Amino acid sequence: MRIIKADAVEFGDFFRELRQRGGAFTPELIASVAEIVRDVAVRGDEALFEYTAKFDKYELSAATVEVTAEERKSAQAEVRPEDLAVIKLAAQRIEKYHKKQIMESWLVDDEDGVEAGQRILPLQRVGIYAPGGKAVYPSTLLMAAIPARIAGVKDIILVTPTKDGKLNPLIAAAAEISGVNRIFKVGGAQAIAALAYGTKTIPRVDKIVGPGNAYVAAAKKLVFGQVDIDMIAGPSEVVVIADKTANASFAAADLLAQLEHDEMAAAVLFTPDENLASEVSKEVDSQMKALSRTAIMEKSLARYGAIIITEDIDEAVELSNVFAPEHLELMVENPAGVLGKVRNAGSVFLGSFTPEALGDYMAGTNHILPTEGTARFSSPLGVYDFVKRMSVLHCSPAALGKLGSKTAHFAQMEGLDAHANSVNVRIKNFTK
């Protein structure tokens, strides 16, 4: 694994490419996806089934597109008891964590006769996208559906591509445990369009969440505004900040864990300790030889993996804040102290015994996280993503008498006579 000093020209080139690696969608991709989205919006199920046959190589109809109760039960029966136990434990921990995020309505009297507050209301219907091809992630389904259920969403719909029209058993189990109401055997950009616009068989949703490939991500971007979305998920990434107290084998293992996702994944270690840097580099090369996804890791490592020598931990944190990583591990002597300096990260893992994989599966924190620097302004998926806030206001006649003239004045400043009149007519006729 290459080692670069933070003050070297090479680092500037690497850091620039690292931050731009996801990049914007190509015009060709956007055009292709836009055509699919428009077609499904106009022709509904007919287009949806045609694209499923074209891309996923299986035939669907109005009678077969939705997974039946019998199909769900049959798929769940194929899950090994030990696998089911792990899924259930993860679900319990995810639910325990996310229950802390529940928001409550409130109403406050300001003692001048004006009551102001807000109502917290769950979204009515949410669509979840779960990959179902080569990559199947029941953990991500848990991360999306459980917070939605806790928020009070009554109708949770899952779309997922299936192999020859057969639901993946692990997805079936995760859907049952997390409270998914309905499952449809569709994927890709066409599934996103169906959720956004609705078809005869798939109801229109209020929000779409869950990661997918570039076509799915582009489709979510295109339908935003028609529905809400969680985020545009980019390539996965981890930054490890480590000092001389860190265990080199732990750091190397966590870097490799991220690099195995795909060829665009990024893994960067920031450390002021050159001895640690050398040890981690050797550990990466050694450990990678024994892992199954070596070909993928070699490609992602060559482009987006590096160990950066910084002047101190403060500079390491500063560079990390600029990158705003999806995952940030603090393998330092005082991680809690360093945490206070972190401003931009999707999820932070403190200490040498908190691997990022723990957050992916069993800790309870959400692993649907902002990528590509969007942690500068966005947050992990949570219960708050499945509710909306409605403001509430009540004003007594006496209170309007106190605030009305100033309100009318402000309206007149903006040239809105009718606004001012709507206040003055009340002051004139109903207040004392």
Beta-strand percentage range:
15-25%
Low-confidence spans: pLDDT under 50, at least 5 residues? none
Helix coverage percent of residues? 40-55%
CATH class of the largest domain: Alpha Beta
Task: Give the number of DSSP strands.
Answer: 14
Structural class: alpha/beta
Count of DSSP-assigned helices: 17
What is the 3D form?
Answer: globular
> Largest sheet, if any?
6 strands, parallel
Structural Rg? 26 Å
Q: What is the name of the CATH superfamily of the largest domain?
A: Nitrogenase molybdenum iron protein domain
Distance between the termini: 79 Å
At CATH level 3, the topology of the largest domain is Rossmann fold
Q: What is the CATH architecture term of the largest domain?
A: 3-Layer(aba) Sandwich
Overall domain count: 3
**What is the overall pLDDT average?**
96
Strand order of the biggest β-sheet: 1-11-10-9-12-13
Describe the structure.
It contains 17 helices and 14 strands. Helix 2 crosses helix 3 (45-56) and helix 8 packs parallel to helix 9 (214-223). The chain has 432 residues and is α/β, with parallel strands linked by helices. The chain folds into three domains: 3-22 and 234-364, Rossmann fold; 27-103 and 123-229, Nitrogenase molybdenum iron protein domain (Rossmann fold); 396-430, no CATH class. 47% of the residues lie in helices and 16% in strands.
